[in-house]
Amino acid sequence: MGEKGPGHEEKQKNIETAAEHLPNEAEVREIFNKLIDGAFVERRKIADEKGLYLWEVEIPGKLSGETTEYAYRRDLQGKTNYNGITITNFEDGMPVGGKNVADFIDGKWIMDTKS
Fold first, then answer.
1. Which residues pair with 44 in a beta bridge?
2. What are the phi and psi torsion angles at 95 (to 5°)?
3. In the sheet where 94-105 sits, what is the strand order?
4. Nearest to 53, CA basis, from 76, 33, 30, 27
5. The pTM is what?
6. How many C-beta atoms surround the C-beta of residue 40 within 10 A?
7. What is the rounded distance in angstroms from the CA atom of residue 75 to the CA atom of residue 88?
């Protein structure tokens, strides 16, 4: 009991590497491009020693005064371990709704396919 079989250390290293991987700017841009049909305007992008932790982009809505913000966020406190993309809909500068659209879990993007 408690013995570690062959390859245990390599498996553990792979698990730790996957858990520590954070999406880089190119990976987040790829997801933005999958989610957004057309061009977007960058509003804010902030990084630290671990890489990108906030990137907000915006697209116009269908009606005058409407916009949609797509925001990548990484948990800075280490409390939630959240990495993902949310959307927020705005009318005349006021938020009127939003949701999670993509989560980065175990080194993979999980897209919300529900409308």
1. 56
2. -70, 135
3. 41-48, 51-60, 66-74, 83-91, 94-105, 108-111
4. 76
5. 0.77
6. 19
7. 18
> Looking at residues 35-56, what average pLDDT do you find?
94
Q: Which residues pair with 46 in a beta bridge?
A: 54
* Beta partners for residue 42, in sequence order: 57
- Sorted by where each begins, the domain ranges of the chain are 22-111
At 57-92, the pLDDT tens digits run 999 999 999 999 999 999 876 666 678 999 999 999
pLDDT reported for residue 106 = 85
d(CA 71, CA 49): 20
Residues contacting 98, CB < 8 A, separation 6+: 86, 87, 88, 89
Written as six digits, the tokens of 65 are 């005064």
The residues with which 45 forms a beta bridge, in sequence order, are 55
Please count the other Cβ atoms lying within 10 Å of the Cβ belonging to residue 69.
Answer: 19
